[in-house]
Amino acid sequence: MILNHLWGLYAHPKQEWHSIDTRHESFRYSIIHIMLIALIPALCAYYSAVYLGWSIGAGERIILTEESARIMAIGMYVALIAGVFALSFIANWMAITFGAKPSYTQTLELAAYTATPMFMVGFAGLYPELWVVVVAGLVGLTYSVYLLYVGVPIIMHIPEDRGFVYASSVVTAGLVLLVCILAGTAILWSNGLGPAFSH
Questions:
Q1: Quick one: which of 90, 45, 46 has its CA closest to 67?
Q2: Which of 49, 70, 130, 191 is the most buried (most CB within 10 A)?
Q3: Cα–Cα distance between 73 and 110 in angstroms, integer?
Q4: Taking the CB of residue 20, how many other CB atoms lie within 10 A of it?
Q5: What pLDDT, on the 0 to 100 scale, is given for residue 3?
């Protein structure tokens, strides 16, 4: 069943990582998980941008046109999926240095389930206040990092001390990827692909 590990990752993460490691679902299963979870922030952001309007402080709410919000939501969806695949590729490449020999499917599982709390933060977009989204984002990021540190020794079958260093390297790579995505967004916006506001 798709998303069957979701509750376990929140209720009892260590046991759930062991369950994931034991079962090792297929590559296809991991892709479907990523594609479904990545819909949450994209759809919530679209709905908020078009129908609710974003509040970033004093002043009127910012509302986008449907076409502009649709393009941005699709771009967000593609970027989130590409980011997970890129992170899993980097994690797979770095694993050899730490004495692990995982398959790409294992590192994709690690990246997919680790990214899940961050993607679930998308629900906060349904209450489009900047401070709410920032707080929810920090909570989601913190839990994603926690899941990574707990999951690496289990999924990669390496000692916890090396797992800590490996997970720290993956976190650093993830932050670099995030900066690259943000920089790409800024470049696209400055070249005429920025949001169109509804008046």
A1: 46
A2: 49
A3: 25
A4: 22
A5: 61
DSSP SS3 for 29:
helix
Cα–Cα dist 120/118, whole Å: 5
The span from the CA of 78 to the CA of 39, in Å, is 10
Specify the DSSP class assigned to residue 2: T
Mean pLDDT of the chain: 87
Write the CA distances from 3 to 33, 37, 124, 139, integer angstroms. 6, 9, 20, 21
The tens digit of pLDDT for each residue in 148-189 reads: 999 999 999 888 888 899 999 999 988 888 888 888 877 877
Under a CB-based contact definition with an 8 Å cutoff, are residues 44 and 122 in contact?
Answer: yes
Q: Which pTM value belongs to this model?
A: 0.88
pLDDT(45) > 50 = yes
Alpha-carbon torsion, ordered 157, 159, 164, 166, to 10 deg = -50
Q: Which of 27, 26, 68, 15 is nearest to 46 (CA)?
A: 68
Query: Residue written as tokens 């509040």?
Result: 55
| Cα dihedral across residues 148, 149, 154, 158: positive or negative | positive
Q: Which two tokens stand for residue 25?
A: 């679902």
In contact, 39 and 77? CB cutoff 8 Å: yes
Report pLDDT digits (tens) over 122-134. 999 899 888 899 9
